[in-house]
Amino acid sequence: MLGLIIVDPFGGEVNSAGEYFQGVLLSTPFYLMYSIPIILVYGTVTSIISDCIALFISNHTNRKLEFSISLLLHLLFGLILLGYSLAAALLFFVTDNVLQRKQIGGWRNALKSFGLPVLIWIMFMGGVYVMDAFI
Asked: Domain residue spans in the chain?
């Protein structure tokens, strides 16, 4: 999603639709290469910590507070890089809650979900290769 919004990670200008699509094609693998390991490690660890703390607090106070406390902790952990990490933390929280409510889980689905960013990265790198062949 960041590749669609911030096409040039180095602050260059985009003057045409062709430059925009070329920028998206080039920036998406760049963003994926650096964000996936960080989100995977930091996001997963802080999500587990947030959920455990929220469960502990809600068990000792009011069970209905678990969702709110977990959301607050996810957002606090997401403040590390302000806008980007806050958006990633919110997206991580929403996705995690949707999957928990639908009871979609298990190792098979987790491994399948790791394949999606890798597939997207391969597709965009293939596009970069094709673009370089024609330019």
From this structure: 2-134
